[in-house]
């Protein structure tokens, strides 16, 4: 384990040597009670999730709107820049980028879809059995 | 190994699609695209020809009192200036330039073709979610026509967003002043009828320009309804010194229904405007009787009106009478 020393003064990035830290592209939670809203953000991984970040790269609204759409915004140019600088992406961001077609599809998206399909099938079978019993 | 090759082919397909999308995107400059087609379709005149635009601006007129009439804005006390005659002329000239700028006609474009591009079909993702995901590219340097907006349906297909979705999402992320996300109910037919009865065609058209893109179906629909209503009731003077007069004349000329407008101009003694209108008609319909006769006789001014009245018009009697009275008054005044 590399002992990380995080200094409290955020004055200059150039003078600091960031041991073991790296830039991540992740979702920062905002919004209100029972109403989440995520900003897609490039930040150092040790910083608090909802506080300081280097750059905002987009947003994600997990609740569907009137037209049954979940709005996601990506600034592809800047995401390309940060990935070129060596940024990592977290799982939900990688899934969203996979759904957008920017990344290849995340394996867990496919697994999740398959699980849902199986659950829907078993539910159908159970409903049929109940109807037959009645 | 399989995963990486899968990755490579997906990434390649995305980039290929990106190149194709770039090649197929609609043009940014409206005027440039229209003028290119005019060289192909000669001799029929297009909206953006210099001659046509010249005629339309002259017909629109420049009534400074109407262009700069008081509109609803923040109340400020009026400013009074003491000017010499030269300064006054200078101020009037500046006002005329400003008025010309305000009177620029909105572009008349062919209707945009619907987008039906499917980028990727993924049956294995079926039922992954109940809602669609809409992905927008929020890069500031990209023009709105070339922005990537894709939709991932719950059935797994990744398709490009339709024009309505595009307009709505661009308004969400790059809001334009005055534009609403859902079009306001004034553009519904019943409400339009009420507004037309109150003679507020200009307000409706101003709102329409702000709300819709010039080549969208709703824009053309609202414009057509307004022009039809104006033509039905003969309320041409409502739009006379506004920037919509050019569009109105173009619509009527293309539909070959300039009789009402011509009669209105003659009633208001606008002979020059009437002559220009007939010239525009001949430019746009070079195969019509009046155009061919004018070509053979090399007619100018009032003769054009007479030829038009003879061959094409339904109200021939009125037009001939008006031309005769004008000639008589001119002859009398010259004595």
What features would you describe in this structure?
The complex is a heterodimer of chains A (134) and B (335). By secondary structure, chain A is α+β, with helices and mostly antiparallel strands. Chain A has a domain at 17-89: Ribosomal protein S16 (S16 Ribosomal Protein, Chain: A). Chain A has 3 helices and 5 strands; from the N terminus they run ββββαβαα. Chain A has helices at 76-84, 91-100, 107-133, and strands spanning 23-32, 35-44, 55-60, 69-74, 88-89. In chain A, strands 4-3-2-1-5 form a 5-stranded mixed sheet. Chain B has 15 helices and 4 strands. Chain B has helices spanning 2-24, 30-40, 50-60, 64-67, 85-102, 163-173, 189-197, 201-211, 217-233, 245-254, 259-267, 271-284, 289-297, 302-311, 316-334, and strands at residues 118-120, 132-137, 149-152, 158-160. In chain B, 56% of the residues lie in helices and 5% in strands. Chain B is mainly alpha-helical. The model of chain B is unreliable at 6-42 (pLDDT under 50). Among the domains of chain B are: 61-103, no CATH class; 118-161, no CATH class. Chain B has a 4-stranded antiparallel sheet, with helices on one face. The interface between A and B is medium-sized, with 28 and 35 residues. Strand 4 of chain A pairs parallel with strand 2 of chain B, so a sheet runs across the interface.
């Amino acid at each position: 384990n590399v002992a990380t020393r995080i200094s409290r003064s955020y004055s200059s990035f150039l003078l600091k040597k960031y041991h073991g830290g790296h830039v991540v592209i992740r979702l920062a939670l905002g919004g209100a009670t029972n109403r989440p809203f995520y900003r897609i953000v490039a930040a150092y991984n040790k910083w608090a999730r909802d506080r300081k970040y280097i750059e905002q790269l987009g947003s994600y609204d997990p609740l569907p709107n009137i037209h049954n759409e979940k709005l996601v915004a990506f600034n592809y140019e800047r995401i390309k820049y940060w990935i070129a600088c060596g940024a990592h992406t977290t799982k939900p961001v990688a899934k969203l980028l996979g759904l957008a077609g920017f990344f290849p599809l995340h394996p867990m998206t496919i697994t999740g879809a398959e699980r849902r399909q199986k659950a829907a099938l078993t539910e159908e079978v159970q409903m049929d059995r109940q109807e037959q019993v009645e | 190994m399989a995963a990486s090759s899968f990755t490579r082919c997906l990434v390649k397909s995305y980039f290929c699609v990106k190149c194709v999308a770039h090649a197929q995107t609609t043009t940014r400059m409206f005027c440039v695209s229209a003028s290119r087609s005019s060289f192909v379709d000669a001799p029929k005149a297009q909206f953006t020809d210099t001659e046509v635009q010249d005629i339309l601006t002259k017909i629109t007129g420049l009534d400074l009192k109407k262009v700069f009439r008081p509109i609803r804005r923040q109340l400020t006390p009026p400013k009074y200036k003491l000017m010499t005659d030269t300064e006054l002329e200078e101020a009037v000239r500046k006002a005329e330039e400003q008025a010309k700028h305000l009177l620029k006609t909105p572009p008349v474009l062919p209707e945009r073709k619907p987008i039906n591009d499917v980028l990727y079909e993924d049956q294995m993702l079926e039922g992954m979610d109940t809602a669609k995901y809409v992905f927008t590219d929020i890069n500031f340097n990209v023009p709105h026509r070339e922005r990537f907006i894709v939709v991932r349906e719950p059935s797994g297909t990744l398709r490009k967003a339709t024009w309505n979705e595009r307009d709505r999402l661009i308004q969400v992320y790059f809001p334009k002043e005055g534009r609403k996300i859902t079009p306001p109910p004034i553009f519904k037919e019943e409400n339009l009828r009420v507004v037309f009865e109150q003679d507020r065609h200009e307000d409706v058209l101003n709102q329409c320009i702000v709300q819709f893109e010039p080549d969208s179906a709703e824009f053309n629909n609202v414009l057509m309804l307004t022009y039809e209503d104006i033509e039905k009731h003969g309320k041409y003077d409502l739009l006379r010194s506004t920037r919509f007069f050019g569009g109105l004349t173009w619509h009527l000329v293309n539909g070959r229904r300039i009789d009402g407008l011509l009669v209105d101009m003659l009633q208001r003694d606008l002979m020059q405007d009437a002559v220009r209108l007939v010239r525009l008609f001949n430019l746009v319909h070079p195969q019509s009787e009046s155009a061919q006769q004018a070509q053979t006789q090399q007619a100018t001014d009032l003769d054009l009106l007479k030829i038009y009245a003879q061959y094409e018009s339904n109200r021939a009697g009125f037009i001939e009478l008006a031309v005769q009275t004008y000639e008589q008054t001119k002859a009398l005044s010259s004595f």
